[in-house]
Design brief:
- By secondary structure, the chain is mainly α.
- It has one domain.
- The protein contains 4 helices and no strands.
């Protein structure tokens, strides 16, 4: 949780009720998103786990920043680095033959 809060730049707000209520829900949502995308949780301490954590952190931060009803601005796009991480995780999924 500490690294997730640091990634989201919410460390100083860790005791905020909104952060305490939403971050765990956003985390579970991100894990579910990856599972539904065909990416399983890797073993801790592996390079694949680091990639997985980055994807989860990205999804949590994105959901945190877009929790308003509307998006201000004219440009919205997917982060290509995030998409490459998801693709790499899918390609290295245990038991998947290419």
């Amino acid at each position: 949780m500490a690294s997730l809060l640091a990634y989201c730049k919410l460390t100083e707000l860790a005791d905020d009720p909104e952060v305490q209520a939403l971050i765990p829900v956003l985390y579970e949502s991100a894990v579910g998103y990856l599972a539904n995308a065909g990416v399983s949780q890797p073993l801790p301490g592996t390079p694949r786990a680091a990639q997985y954590d980055l994807c989860v952190n990205y999804l949590v931060l994105d959901a945190w920043e877009r929790r308003e009803v509307t998006i201000t601005g004219t440009i919205t796009a997917d982060n290509p680095a995030f998409r490459r991480l998801i693709n790499q995780l899918k390609l290295t999924e245990p038991g998947v033959e290419l």
